[in-house]
Amino acid sequence: MNDESFDDELLEEEAVPGDDAEGFLQRAIDTVSTARTMPLSASVLVDRQDLLDLLQGAVDRIPDELRRARWLLRERDEFLASRQREADMLLDDVRAQAERMVQRTEIVRQANQVAQRVLDDAREEARRLRHESEDYCDQRLASFEIVLERTLKTVQAGREKLQAVPPPLHDGESLRVGADGVSDIAQAGFFDQDDG
User: Fold this and answer.
1) Residues forming a β-bridge with 44
2) In the structure, how many helices (H) and strands (E) does the chain have?
3) 52, 82, 140, 156: which has the highest count of C-beta atoms within 10 A?
């Protein structure tokens, strides 16, 4: 894949907000947190396939975002190599000029200073780009970690609610369903497991 087509892909991917891994995970969290509750229960009904699709979409996007980070690192390396080539060429030019102009030591000294400044600038720019790339990767991974932890907590809470055990019957009491289909407990009053 050449750099121009990758740049076009980056622009297209960035043009759709919420279409990254974090957006998919946030939609999964929203799906769980806004799900309808089951009647007479605090448990929620979640469309399993929708939730799985959102989580799979997040998993599918993570490699793209990591690929983007690797692309930034590759761009940094190419920039460093380019600057190093420029510096090497400049140093070669300075050496050739110094050989031709030995009698003009001041010019040679100035050319060496310029070459050294260019080399120092290139190293400083390379260091800055490396730190920015590392910071970007670290920030993205940290945000993925936070979103994944939130999603995991939300899913665990939902599973715990779904696995809640109904309250035990008192000694000697049995659950009887009358001819009208209503249990003795339901006739005695509404039971809410959250109040129990």
Assistant:
1) 37
2) 5, 0
3) 140
Question: Residue 195 gets which letter from DSSP?
Answer: T
pTM of the model: 0.30
Q: How many CB atoms sit inside 10 A of residue 133's CB?
A: 19
Instruction: Classify the phi-psi angles of 91: left when phi > 0, otherwise alpha if psi is within -120 to 50, otherwise beta.
Output: alpha
Contact yes or no for 32/46 (Cβ under 8 A): yes
Rg of the chain over all Cα atoms, to the nearest angstrom: 33
What does the alpha-carbon distance between residue 192 and residue 196 come to, in Å, rounded to a whole number?
7
pLDDT per 10-residue tile (average), the chain, 196 residues? 47 54 79 76 76 79 79 90 91 83 71 88 90 88 90 91 72 57 49 50
Q: Classify each residue of 153-178 as buried b or exposed e, where b means 16 or more C-beta atoms within 10 Å of its C-beta.
A: ebbeebeebeeeeeeeeeeeeeeeee
Partnered with residue 37 across adjacent β-strands are 44
- Determine the pLDDT at residue 120: 93
pLDDT at 154: 92
- Long-range contacts of residues 126-131, Cβ cutoff 8 Å, at least 24 apart: 126/76, 126/79, 126/80, 126/83, 129/76, 129/79, 129/80, 130/76
Q: What is the pLDDT of residue 150?
A: 93
**Which of 115, 108, 94, 79 is closest to 3 using CA atoms?**
79
Using alpha carbons, list the distances in angstroms from residue 73 to 58, 61, 69, 103: 23, 19, 6, 45
